C-alpha cells in the first residue's frame, strides 16, 4: 500500500514594500520564513495594499519596491518553486473578504488594538491617521483566512492583530456556518529589533541598517549607536542589556565576542 503523504501545515505571512529590506525585516520575519520553508506549505506575499495605508502619496515608489522586495527574498533563500510567492493587490478576493469581515467587526474591537492607540500621534504627524490604517487588522485577517492559513509568524507587536483576526474568523464561522481556520501564532526568533537610535528599528524613524548596504555605509550607521546612556564617563560601569551596541552584538557576534562585550561594558 502506498504511503500516505502527510499534509503540511499552511503558513501565510506578508511584508510591506515601504523601503529596502533592513536587518529588522530579516531577524523579525525573513529568518523565520526560511526555517518554516522546510516543513510547512508557505504563502508569502508582498503586502502592497497595506503599504498604501501610509504611502498613498507615493504609489509609484511602492510599485518599484515590490520587485526589489521579491528579488531580495529569493536572494536570501525563499524558494518560489516550492512555495507560493505573490503580490497582494494582484489577487482581488482578499478585498471582497475584507468587506465581509468589515461588516461583522464591531468598532470596539478595532479601537482596543494597542498598535493603533500607541501609534496615533505618529500617524497624525505623517498624515496616515486614516480609515485604511484603522482597519488594517481586518484586511490582515482576510489575507490569512482567504488562503486558509493555519499559522502566522508574528513579532511581539503583531500579537494583538492576530488575536483580533481569530475573533473575526470565529464570528464569521458562527454566523455563516463556514470552517475557516483560526490561525495560530508562531513567534519570530527575535520579536523586537532595536534601531541605531535605541528605538524599534523602523524606516519612519530613520534608524535602520539596510540588508544591501555597502560596508562603508554600515560602518557609518553603526558609529552613531550609543553604548549605554547611563555611562557618563568611560570609567562608569555599563549594562550591555541597555546598550544599542550590546543588543546588536547579540544578533551577530559569537559567544566569545559577546563575553568580551559584557566584560568591557560592565
Number of helices: 13
End-to-end C-alpha gap = 64 Å
Strand content: 5-15%
In spatial order, strands of the major sheet run 1-2-3
Residue runs with pLDDT of under 50 for 5 or more positions: none
Tertiary shape: globular
Set down the secondary structure blueprint.
Layout: E1 10-15, H1 23-36, E2 41-46, H2 48-55, H3 59-76, E3 84-87, H4 93-104, H5 107-111, H6 114-118, H7 120-125, H8 131-134, H9 136-146, E4 151-154, H10 159-176, E5 184-187, H11 215-222, H12 244-252, H13 255-265
Parallel strand pairs: 1-2, 2-3, 4-5
Provide a short characterization of the protein structure.
The chain has 266 residues and is mainly alpha-helical. It contains 13 helices and five strands.
Structural overview:
It is a single chain. With 266 residues, the chain is mainly alpha-helical. Helix content is 48%, strand content 9%. The chain is globular, with a radius of gyration of 20 Å. It starts with 9 loop residues before the first strand and ends with a helix. The model has no long low-confidence stretch (mean pLDDT 90).
Name the features:
266 residues, mainly alpha, three-stranded parallel β-sheet, two-stranded parallel ribbon, globular
Amino acid at each position: 500500500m502506498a504511503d500516505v503523504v502527510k499534509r503540511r501545515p499552511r503558513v501565510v505571512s506578508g511584508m510591506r514594500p515601504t523601503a529596502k529590506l533592513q536587518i529588522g525585516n530579516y531577524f523579525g520575519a525573513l529568518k523565520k520564513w526560511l526555517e518554516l520553508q522546510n516543513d510547512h506549505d508557505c504563502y508569502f506575499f508582498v503586502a502592497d495594499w497595506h503599504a498604501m495605508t501610509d504611502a498613498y502619496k507615493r504609489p509609484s515608489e511602492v510599485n518599484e519596491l515590490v520587485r526589489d522586495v521579491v528579488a531580495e527574498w529569493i536572494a536570501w533563500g525563499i524558494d518560489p518553486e516550492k512555495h507560493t510567492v505573490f503580490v497582494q493587490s494582484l489577487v482581488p478576493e482578499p478585498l471582497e473578504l475584507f468587506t465581509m469581515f468589515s461588516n461583522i467587526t464591531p468598532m470596539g474591537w478595532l479601537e482596543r488594538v494597542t498598535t493603533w492607540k500607541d501609534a496615533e500621534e505618529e500617524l497624525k504627524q505623517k498624515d496616515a491617521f486614516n480609515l485604511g490604517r484603522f482597519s488594517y487588522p481586518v484586511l490582515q485577517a482576510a489575507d490569512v483566512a482567504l488562503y486558509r492559513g493555519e499559522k502566522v509568524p508574528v513579532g511581539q507587536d503583531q500579537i494583538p492583530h492576530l488575536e483580533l483576526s481569530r475573533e473575526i474568523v470565529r464570528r464569521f464561522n458562527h454566523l455563516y456556518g463556514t470552517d475557516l481556520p483560526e490561525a495560530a501564532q508562531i513567534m519570530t526568533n527575535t520579536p523586537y529589533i532595536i534601531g541605531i537610535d535605541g528605538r524599534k528599528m523602523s524606516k519612519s524613524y530613520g534608524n535602520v541598517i539596510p540588508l544591501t548596504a555597502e560596508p562603508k555605509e554600515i560602518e557609518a550607521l553603526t558609529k552613531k549607536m550609543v553604548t549605554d546612556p547611563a555611562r557618563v564617563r568611560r570609567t562608569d560601569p555599563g549594562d550591555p542589556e541597555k546598550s544599542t551596541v550590546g543588543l546588536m552584538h547579540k544578533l551577530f557576534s559569537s559567544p566569545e565576542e559577546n563575553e568580551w562585550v559584557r566584560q568591557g561594558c560592565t
